[in-house]
Amino acid sequence: MCGGVPTELINVVAAGGGFAGTETIAGVNDFLRESIRFYPHLTEDLVRVVLVHPGDVILPELGPKLGAYAQKKLAERGVEIRVDTKVVQVEDDAVELSDGSRIPAQTVIWTAGTSLNPLVAKLPCKLDHGRIVTDEYLELPDWPGVWALGDCASVLDRKTGRPYPPTAQHAVRQGKTVAKNVYAAVRGGTKKPFSFSTLGLLAAIGRRTGVANILGVNFSGFIAWFLWRTIYLSKLPRFEKKVRVALDWTLDLLFTKDLVHFLDLRPPTVSHAEEEAHSSLVASRR
Ligand SMILES: Cc1cc2nc3c(=O)[nH]c(=O)nc-3n(C[C@H](O)[C@H](O)[C@H](O)COP(=O)(O)OP(=O)(O)OC[C@H]3O[C@@H](n4cnc5c(N)ncnc54)[C@H](O)[C@@H]3O)c2cc1C
Question: Which residue, 14, 128, 159, 183, has fewest beta-carbon neighbours within 10 Å?
Fold first, then answer.
């Protein structure tokens, strides 16, 4: 409680300072701080938005320089960043951290990694960190005619000697390679090895700023945010969807966030049979 306000209702904690955690906490922070002025009994200093990250800098995939930039920008906007720290326990109204501190919060955003479908672990094939090991053609070495791709597959990048990262950029291109290789295997042709270099990584960190690495070049600030929007817009399927989103994003530049919330609360429904049974019960008691 702070000045009679239960702070655990306003505080938000995100576990994991990767792309999902950082982008989400930046958006939540902007949303809360922009909305607070519509609630006269609340003040901005009551809001606590915390990003907990086990490494020494957030957004590790983008390198320490962009990670440090993102940290600085978020901290300037009031996000509390706890590096070298992990969430160890989540309770109903508090979050416990590895440094022993407790943050009163009922809203916790978990972005500390995803796990594969448990089915993969049961497959009788070679796994690397839980992912199915394939050869360069995305075929399972001991299982000719069986292919794996995307997040569930561990495909070695021969340039780096490490598996390709689990991103959509890779999954989509692996899909095309597998399609061609299945065709080649069935019709008799030459299979194509999978080879792809990450084109870029982008993160929006709120208030029209972003961080990006495109083809090895670092961008930050408004230009990175603009690239983020333009690139993701271009990836949307169908022209109609692109126009709808582009219009929405344009209006977003002119107006503040839409805070209207329609509560979908309904009274409990009672069937005619239940109503009749209730009426006859009441009548019989008279
Ligand atoms: C929050 C978040 C943000 C991300 N942002 C980005 C980004 O900005 N850029 C980027 O490149 N990548 C991003 N990624 C990663 C990207 O989403 C994945 O790399 C990509 O979706 C992998 O594709 P996939 O087809 O291997 O797996 P998925 O897209 O997960 O598809 C697997 C499908 O298989 C289905 N399935 C599961 N089990 C079974 C079963 N037993 N039988 C049949 N179907 C089953 C699932 O329902 C699902 O539809 C993000 C991921 C997350 C979680």
Answer: 159
